[in-house]
């Protein structure tokens, strides 16, 4: 990780925002269907852009004026959403199970803000627990189930939907609604937060002793599959999803330095999607087992997060801290047996 920007930040009092109505950009970003539609560019002009287009110089400052924290973005991960944009710039990528056994990603940015990120999709209840380990994070998402929005608005985070920050979002070419909503990160977080904002407890450094040689691991969800293959030449893990190599919109292979398969409880939440499917709740507070992949080896470790405001500690069998390799980390939450 790079960057050492630090700064104190005071928590700002918030007034609970009104429920998002299922109209306009929210409807298109969360549950809408159809053909591409133009988006407001923040200056009253409607247009459709390509995801890799540079943001104009008129970007307005975020409402967060008391110091930057991490930016977390909910990323669409169905086949229709791929290839994604800006995912390779994230410091951490979390993968969780959602309705129908599919997967969704949360990308966390601290040391680098790409020009665009997406496609952006809706939030889930367990995101609130996962994000408590960061200090006043900004959460970018397309919307959420109506009854969940009051919980999001009361959470200690800066919730930024297209309705609240229309100038930060745009519709990209080449994909249909709802898989074509993109974010300009610097419209929400104009100052790169820096490595100090990554308060999730991860440690980086030399690999511990032990481990076993391992060049391929696969994680199965009911309707999704992640595979990680070690590349000796790149010294990175090559990501595949649902049997296909995972690349960015500009053709670059996704290559994290460390992969964590974290075994957690996955229970039913109180919420459902518009088809009536129950939303799984991924429990990230507690303790359990994990497998850490780095440098072509696998380490069976323990994880612990005593309370939501704590980061997650990973320790080897002898109780020593588990160091991650420098670079991007993927955390795939898998259901504990």
UniProtKB/TrEMBL annotation:
SUPFAM superfamilies: YerB-like (SSF159774). Residues 30-68 are annotated as: Disordered. It holds the Pfam family DUF3048_C. Transmembrane segments: none annotated. Keywords: Signal. Residues 1-27 form the signal peptide. It comes from the Bacteria. Residues 40-52 have a biased composition (Basic and acidic residues). This is DUF3048 domain-containing protein. It comes from Streptomyces pseudovenezuelae.
